[in-house]
Amino acid sequence: MSFEEQFENSASGIEHFDDDNIDGFDMNHDNTVNEGEEYKISIDELVNTKTSNSIKSDDKNSFKKLVLKDAKHSEVESASKSKDEDADKTTDEEQENKQQKEDVSNHSINILQSVKSKEVETILNLSPDKVAETKNFDFKLFLNFLKDPKAEPILKYTRSFINQVLKSDKWYTFKEQAKLIEDFEIFIYKKFEIYEPFKLMNSVDLDNCKDCMEKLITNKLYARIFSPLYYSRYLKLSKNDIGNFPDDHLRLVKNDQIIWKNIKKFGSIITLENLEIHNLNEKNFEMLAKFFTVFNRELCKMSKFRSPRDKLVCLLNSCKIIFSYLKKIGNKSLTADDFMPLLVYSVLKIPAFNADNYYLQSTVTYIEIIRQESFLKGEESYYLMSFQGALQFVSELSEENMFEKFKVNDKKAFKNKFDDQLGYITAKQLESEENAKQKKYEEQKQKNELDNQEQQGLMTAWPLSGWFSGSSPSPNEESLLSKFSNMMSTGTEEDGMAEKKPKEKNTNLETQQTIEAQLKNAEKEDLASLKEMFPQLEDSIIKDIYISTKRNVTQTIEAILEML
Amino acid sequence: MIQFKLVLLGDSSVGKSSIVTRFVKDQFDINKESTIGAAFLSQTIKLLDSETNDEVAVKFEIWDTAGQERYKSLAPMYYRNSNAAIVVYDITDANSLSKAVKWVNELKEKLGDDNDCVISLIGNKLDLINEDETKRAISRREGEEFAIENGLYFHEVSAKENIGIKDIFQEIGESLYNQHKEKKLKNATTISRNGGNSNVELNRPSTNDATSCCS
After folding, report:
1. Chain A: residue nearest B75 by CA?
2. How many Å lie between the alpha carbon of B8 and the closest alpha carbon of chain A?
């Protein structure tokens, strides 16, 4: 199996808590309402200075020019500094924040407020803050501030920034993205000083808002900045000629795989002694198993949150669990000598065959790169670094160096166990390849049947699979796709939900039962995809529109777009 | 408050962690900020500014590292951006100084020449010698000479009996504080020479980023 295939096989089921109901907080608006409060992203290209077309054409429309330059490479940073200063000077000029009374954002929030409140509540209970509350973090409060009409410019700048990143079809390196986000954060924090209610806040509340701003941005941009999602988007689009996937993102995704491979290879065969973990006896060992369950639960949770802050809280919780275990077994000193080996051990013991989507390296690096430095306290960065260290240790393991990395007394026995494990892995792999083939075959079969139906003129709805992977979607659809593809990859969990409510509405298709079944299938597929595109909308709303447009997906999308 | 990052290096049996534990527990301000575990500790000490005679508070963020040989390759991640390092050996263990020397050399090599990381070489377990002089395996001179050659601070201490522990940190703190003041002064002069805005970076509130003061 190629690396890409392997990635795609394991990349299923990336699901997230919509914690704090951010998906319901709509950020996608037409740029026209942003006049005067636009934020321009730009990365200077050293070789040829052509900027992305979409950004260029926007330039003409905006009547305040607010170009924040940033440097692709740090060498040119100083050169662009003067431009930065120029941009700052324009900040005084935006004072027409009184127009646009029809507060579009509030309006749409009201419409769109997903009534998932119960769900949200349960999620809030799961909020990672339970174990490690570092400070008062209040995201709801922040959203309320943003809804304040006086804060509208802030909202518009943010929206403008998010939209531009989402619209841009350039493949950014992680470094560039970090720079874009950081620049925007610096920019918007300056704006906090100008506009109420932020202007009047004490420093504690203001810090909270800054932190929340990071959460908002990263939630909205998650599919473009979290390497595995970015990569799976790339693979989806890669049939067209879209250039190369950025190296630094790719390295992370590959490293995730390497770590998984090594966890599979070594996880089940290594012992505490191999890693020089002392002071553990039989009795402690039993407790260790229990503690691993909690450790894994915390780590696993990391993948369900989108913002670096939330992920970090989960990661710190898992470190805490290691310490609480060490404390529980009566270890007095609790030092790095005890902690580090146990952390490596714990990572290696993650149950490898049923949880392929931890994306440990991507996640940890994502936190490190995207989390604002001023929010990374010494202690937090220490444990983040320790995790990086543990991952590095695991990723460096190989058959060649295993006797250096592990303390092994009986090398022959260890090697035998290792070879057995390799055999087991190969068997498992063949099995999963077989399953994947089977799945592909069934999908193909289903698609063929759908195509047949269409040829017979019995299908009114457009088979969605056709225009996702189809040869040449019309320009219109393409732009729609690019506009909303960001949502597609974040909302995969919705498939199941759409399936749960096949509401029996009277349609004129009752005549042929078989055809009905086919159509229902297509409908399910359509609805699931629509739901992915508009995760902020309720299932029933989407379904109503879908039915009212006679199950035409394109028309449904257009109708929803108008509504937004 | 000024903050410094301090990394702790040394073999696993030399008692490097107990030095920090002793230091952190004996100070006026019991460590409240470690919420996760003891591998990371922070502690604030007070210094007198030699010119103004004002009392200043300096905060150490202490990064412990795993001493076992097999985790040694991870150490560079920890000492990146650190302002100070304490390298510990055991004066009753004949091999431990050579290991400490390795740590120092590696540290210097990885940090490069133009770093101003303050390094202190510490021989621990002085209490064992005080009980029984024959247990000494490394002479004081040996350690001291290496320290002088390499521009390191040097002490023989006992974490167990609390001998000389506070001095290690006091000394590093003072050195880092002076370094910090010099840098500040330098920045101030370059800014005024440029005739630019006077208090651009100077009065910036300190952040939690350890690298923001001296790096």
Report:
1. A389
2. 10
Chain A residues touching B60 at Cβ < 8 A: none
The mean pLDDT of A209-230, rounded to a whole number, is 89
Report yes or no: B81 at the A interface, CB cutoff 8 Å.
no
Fold of B2-212: Rossmann fold (3.40.50)
- Supply the pLDDT for residue A384: 93
Residue A39, C-beta contacts closer than 8 angstroms, at least 6 positions apart: A66, A68, A157, A158, A160, A161, A164, A184, A187
Touching check for B35 and chain A: CB below 8 Å?
yes
Contacts of A339 in chain B (CB under 8 A): 37, 39, 66
CA distances in angstroms from B50 to B27, B56, B176, listed in the order given: 22, 10, 13
C-beta of residue A196 within 8 angstroms of C-beta of residue A79? no
Q: For residue A386, what pLDDT is reported?
A: 94
Residue A484 has pLDDT above 60, yes or no: no
List, for residues A340-350, the tens digit of each pLDDT value. Answer: 999 999 999 88
* A333 contacts B39? CB cut-off 8 A: no
8 A C-beta contact, residue B90 and residue B15: yes
Q: Which residue has the tokens 């000479």?
A: B145
Q: Which strands make up the sheet holding B153-156, listed edge to edge? A: B40-48, B55-64, B2-10, B84-90, B118-124, B153-156
Nearest CB to B77 within list A134, A323, A385:
A385
- Say whether residue B95 is in contact with chain A using an 8 A CB cutoff: no
Residues within 8 A of B (CB atoms), A 164-193 only: none
Extents of the domains making up chain B:
2-212
Q: What is the ipTM of this complex?
A: 0.85
Distances (CA, A) of A468 to A13, A88, A185, A474: 19, 43, 34, 11
| pLDDT tens by residue, A537-554 | 777 777 888 777 777 655
Query: What percent of chain A has pLDDT above 90?
Result: 8
Sort out which chain B residues have CB atoms less than 8 A from A312's CB and list them. Answer: none
DSSP codes of every residue in A63-130: SS--B--B-SSGGGHHHHHHHHHHHHHGGGG---TTS--S-HHHHHHHHH--STHHHHHHHHHT-GGG
Helix (H, G, I), strand (E, B) or coil at A140: helix
The pLDDT of residue A17 is 57
Nearest to A288 by CA among A263, A271, A305, A303: A271
Q: Give CATH for domain A247-430.
A: 1.20.1050.80
Nearest to A405 among B8, B70, B78 (CB): B70
Least confident of A114-123, A146-155, A197-206: A114-123
DSSP A354: S
Mean pLDDT of A345-374: 83
Lowest mean pLDDT among A30-34, A256-260, A530-534: A30-34
DSSP letter (8 states) at residue A1 = -
Q: Considering only residues A449 and A10, tell me which one the structure prediction assigns the higher pLDDT.
A: A449
- Contact call for B77 and A396, based on CB within 8 A: no
What is the per-residue pLDDT for A441? 86
User: Got the DSSP string for chain B?
Assistant: -EEEEEEEEE-TTS-HHHHHHHHHHHSSS------S-TTEEEEEEEEE-TTT--EEEEEEEEEE---SGGGGGGHHHHHTT-SEEEEEEETT-TTHHHHHHHHHHHHHHHH-TT---EEEEEEE-HHHHHH-GGG--S-HHHHHHHHHHTT-EEEE-BTTTTBSHHHHHHHHHHHHHHHHHHHHHHHHHHHHHHT--TTSSTTPPP-S-GGGT--
For the cut 60, the answer to whether the pLDDT of residue A296 exceeds it is yes
